[in-house]
Amino acid sequence: MKLVGIVGSIADQSYNRMLLRFMSTQYRNMADIEILDISDVPMFNQSNDQSDSPAIQYLNHKILAADGVIIATPEHNHTIPAALKSVIEWLSYNLHPFTDKPVMIVGASYFIQGSSRAQLNLRQILESPGVNAITLPGNEFLLANAKEAFDESGMLKDDRTASFLGSTLQKFVEFVGVIGHLNGRADNPGASEDLYATGNCDTTVKDVDMRDPQWLEKAAEKTNAVSGDAYVKLDRGLLTVNQIDRFLKTMPVELTFADENNQFIYYGDQGHDPKDMLASRTPDQVGDPLYYVHPERALKGVATVINNLRNGKTDLFVLPVPGNGPTKHLMHYYKAMHDEDGVYRGINEWVVDLWPIVASYLKQTGKKLVDDPNAKVAATTGASSSAPVEPDPDASTGASEEEEAPTAPTTDASTGASEETEAPMADATTKASDADIFVAEVDETSGASEA
Fold it and tell me: Fewer beta carbons under 10 A from the terminal one: N or C of the chain?
């Protein structure tokens, strides 16, 4: 489960930040908690709308992508700090990421009341029109005497306090699950994917705007990237950058690379006009977050594919493209990449027209494709399935879990040619029998194939 924790203070020394850090490390088996800082958020000013500023959009995207939110607040004059109030104002003015979002409130303060009145104030704000958060009822965690509560390593000293905090977080995790089910989020495994790439991974080039059309040139300059005839030692070879470029450009498929932070950082330019590519890409898209390189109608499908690959639900996702015809059969393949430790490192996508391969096979073997009179053809993809079988579509991908492969044609042993009497039409989608492969049927109107 993906949670974000908002530090309700902009102080350099914040015990509420320490509290969230403790939660993120001590209870990482319950949830992945990412801590968000609000120091760069400007004070709310309705006359100077800054909803589109990077600091506010960063929080907006992070909250939208999270399953739930934890807010840790100090207490200032019986209320929450002005900085936290300003953040909520921005996120309920033109942006509304808290709508129907489960929220847990915790707090630490110097004295005995442990931010109790600030938490009550915050609860009222979160439930107000325009914010519309769903706050965990009861289960208040009030950390009093915060200056003495932590040891030198940032751990809570009192075991009973830590145990109570853990039990409260466990209840929130269950609460998030219930709310997610009611909101339909449980049926959308991609809901937690951050397609805006607001995070970082160890290869993210910092301080270069991902949306800059010149991202490649600026990122290369910042990292002192090698080019031209500079040698690169690979796992099984030694090539210059120019050789690598030539090698990739002459691949018989169109290649795309997106890293684990959901940033689009490479595509194979084979010299075609973008409109003539199997999957159109342009140079100014390199560096963009994945959100900006797909049409809005396709984003849910994109996020679902990525989430399935990231979490190991499948290792390869296969997607037929709508609009295939009698002499064209385009397929998208999405392969999860992992490092030597098995950590997810992004997606290798390739697009290929399978028809020339099929046509060559038929020509070389003397075989032919014959319609299966018992097959049901999916209106959106043209994929067939044997009539006696009623496949159970997977809700998240549209892939059939029990699809029956067509009967193999009878082959003349002496010639290798198939008899044409009852040979069924080969269905490319049913050949993905490997348990680690998802083959999705795609709604042509949804654009989900553009994932």
Answer: N
Q: What is the CA radius of gyration of the chain?
A: 27
What structural domains and CATH numbers belong to the chain?
2-187 (3.40.50.360)
Strands 264-267 and 316-320: unpaired
**Do 109 and 148 meet the contact criterion of CB atoms below 8 Å apart?**
no
Q: Which three-class secondary structure state does DSSP give residue 292?
A: helix
Q: Are strands 344-353 and 437-439 parallel, antiparallel or unpaired?
A: unpaired
Structure tokens at 46: 């309705």
Each residue's pLDDT tens digit, 17-52:
999 999 999 998 899 999 999 999 999 999 999 999
Residue 416 region, left (φ>0) first, then alpha (ψ -120 to 50), else beta? Answer: left
Phi, psi for residue 40 in degrees, rounded to 5: -90, 0
Q: What is the pLDDT of residue 185?
A: 64
For residues 267 and 383, what is the distance between their CA atoms, to the nearest angstrom?
28
Distance CA 115, CA 414 (A): 86
Asked whether the beta carbons of 172 and 134 are under 8 A apart, the reply is no
Q: How far apart are CA 417 and CA 52, in angstroms?
A: 64
Q: Read out DSSP for 149-172?
A: HB-TTS-BS-HHHHHHHHHHHHHH
Residue 276 DSSP class? G
Buried b (16+ CB within 10 A) or exposed e, 360-381: eeeeeeebebbebeeeeebebb
> Which residue did the predictor score with more confidence, 59 or 386?
59
Of the candidate ranges 36-50, 91-105, 153-167, 397-411, the one whose mean pLDDT is the lowest: 397-411
- Asked if residue 426 has pLDDT above 50, the reply is no
